[in-house]
Amino acid sequence: MCLAVPGKVLSLEERDGTLMSVVDFGGVHKDVCLQYIPDAAIGDYVVVHVGFAIQRLDEESALATLAEFEHLGVLNEEFADGFAVAAAQAGVDNPEAPRQRDPEEEP
């Protein structure tokens, strides 16, 4: 699933000529491209789709949407480790997870 998720702009910086930000999605922080909203400011809420901020959103709507996504488990699904989710859905161990050492195994 790929959603547009609201988040709060925490920082602004230019990287290689591209306006970037760290955005807070209810406690999950991700790098986001702000090129479509170049006048975004720290503290603004933006709607992010596939790593790009695509529009502004008022704080009340953003927080209500984040709360509903959290209630539905959407944020965990959207930001979870893709390998872990796929492995769980397939009913197999996550190939990316650290392997537990057998205590009888030599170091």
TrEMBL record:
Question: In which domain of life is the source organism classified?
Answer: Bacteria
What Pfam families does the record point to? HupF_HypC
SUPFAM superfamilies xrefs: HupF/HypC-like
Coiled-coil spans are: none
Q: Which organism is it from?
A: Nocardia fusca
State the family named in the UniProt similarity comment for this chain.
Belongs to the HupF/HypC family.
The record's section on Gene3D superfamilies has: 2.30.30.140
> What protein name is recorded for this chain?
HypC/HybG/HupF family hydrogenase formation chaperone
Q: InterPro entries annotated for this entry?
A: Hydgase_assmbl_chp_CS, Hydrogenase_HupF/HypC
